[in-house]
Amino acid sequence: MRAPIVIHRPSPTGGRRVTIRGHIAGLAYDDQDVIEFLRRAGLPDAEQLLDRPEWVEWRGGRAHSYAAA
After folding, report:
1. Least CB-packed of 6, 12, 28, 50 within 10 Å?
2. Dist. CA 10–CA 69, nearest whole Å
3. Cα torsion through 7, 11, 13, 16, rounded to 10
4. Where are the domains of the chain?
């Protein structure tokens, strides 16, 4: 099973696109942005999910890094 939350590679201008179950949630510039997107999607314990690979897939860069590519 694939992770339902994908944090995509950093963009050239900074930030990472976040998708939840294939739908774009927004552009995150830090973990707090991701947590807010997940809360809006109905995941109340969002801060505990970021390092769980069954929930979150970090693509194209180090986890928790949002600097420009």
Report:
1. 12
2. 5
3. -10
4. 5-58
